Amino acid sequence: xxxxxxxxxxxxxxxxxxxxxxxxxxxxxxxxxxxxxxxxxxxxxxxxxxxxxxxxxxxxxxxxxxxxxxxxxxxxxxxxxxxxxxxxxxxxxxxxxxxxxxxxxxxxxxxxxxxxxxxxxxxxxxxxxxxxxxxxxxxxxxxxxxxxxxxxxxxxxxxxxxxxxxxxxxxxxxxxxxxxxxxxxxxxxxxxxxxxxxxxxxxxxxxxxxxxxxxxxxxxxxxxxxxxxxxxxxxxxxxxxxxxxxxxxxxxxxxxxxxxxxxxxxxxxxxxxxxxxxxxxxxxxxxxxxxxxxxxxxxxxxxxxxxxxxxx
Amino acid sequence: xxxxxxxxxxxxxxxxxxxxxxxxxxxxxxxxxxxxxxxxxxxxxxxxxxxxxxxxxxxxxxxxxxxxxxxxxxxxxxxxxxxxxxxxxxxxxxxxxxxxxxxxxxxxxxxxxxxxxxxxxxxxxxxxxxxxxxxxxxxxxxxxxxxxxxxxxxxxxxxxxxxxxxxxxxxxxxxxxxxxxxxxxxxxxxxxxxxxxxxxxxxxxxxxxxxxxxxxxxxxxxxxxxxxxxxxxxxxxxxxxxxxxxxxxxxxxxxxxxxxxxxxxxxxxxxxxxxxxxxxxxxxx
Lengths: 312, 285
Known about the structure:
Oligomer: heterodimer
Helix content of chain B: 10-25%
Largest sheet of chain B: 7 strands, antiparallel
Distance between the termini of chain B: 30 Å
Strand content of chain A: 15-25%
Order of helices and strands of chain A: EEEEEEHEHEEEHEHEEEEEHEHEHH
Order of helices and strands of chain B: HEEHEEEEHEEHEHEEHEHEEEE
Largest interface: A-B, 40 and 33 residues
């Protein structure tokens, strides 16, 4: 309640399928560790949800360095899906997360359809998980390394197999490295996704002109940060018009203004990613900023902003 | 403490994660006004900043992630080892201007607020008693001053072998050497061009001193630290190194700051370091 006027505080609650969040601000997988890394800098109980670093069945060591390189208003990463593996996640990382009042969403990844469904199955037995987010930008090693999320049939297959393996809400995280994002969005909706999140990183590279070598050991990396926001925003708008399930917007969100652009373009919620690296309190500042914006616009609920973009 | 992973190898990461949260070090974000600017050479700058919480909790070998403004380009913070941390809430960082981020920081005028996160990382372990050798190369000298100052407060500098400091040329080395001397440490210097001290590598000065010390602390370019690590291994003397890599977050979240660990796998310089034992690192040629 506003202490000055006595008016009710703006309602920031949103629903991602069966999952109700206190506000639409989540942390993007790969940018917030397993939560505890930020515990002394951020009030984790102020966030809408925490999405943890992507988990695979077996631990993954990740790529050799150099794995990160700053670019203009962004960065390239070729971390290589490094993670502790699902068993250590459940025993070592989940206990801390369970003590929070904030929903924990586990991002899962695999190099085969079987790995995704086995992961989803394993996580059924872990307490404290509110939903799964499925990273389909991984290469399908059985199909020559083509990313699952770039072929509608493969995106459908992964979605269906995770859907069948779990009773948790399933959010499919889309790859932007496609010609028609609406096509992929519709395919995963039909296959049973409760929601979609987009975008994951854009494929890019950088060159060291003195050594004449790529700056990343992996040559390619994923571009993230403010530089990708216009692309992300465009894709969120396109996807939101193509599906009726909730869309979670990701891509260069640093300030409340950025978050509002995505909500108006049709996102029900947003994820903050790279900004966590240089402004750890970005998520909290965006939550406060949303409340302030709603007051200024005399709106009672953030849901009134979702999809409010006018195009004629 | 170490444990055996299922593959039978010692897993350093598992050791770290078994430390319960109550032992994790506090980290702070502070908007830190510039209280002093020194241009030691045309491209070496020292900033003194008012960051009381960071200063109070900092231990030698730890670092801060610094951001000069709200700019999106450069986007990321830059890591700097803590060069000095004094009782009146001040810390200093010492750095060479090498790109956009350092240029912006070097241009910060007095009372401009630098956004700092720290203290971060694993610092030097000073529990090994007895004579010790601090050896620094170039900007690697920075964290060794904080270490020397703390050792001096514990009376450890008395009758200790010299601190060894090296650089390409005289430039900033003279002033830094004086500051160590003021702490009560004898100092020997070396320069590539012979403008002061020994004409050659600072590592060449280590040979005479190594038999007298129980612990070596080194910070500098990787080839220099490798040379020191190998000499220490041959002498059976424990050696602590301070690693440096590109970092995006400094908090253990991005996983971008990896360095090959001995025995396979990677260590994360921001969490498993920057200070670690020389034996934990793979010294690539």
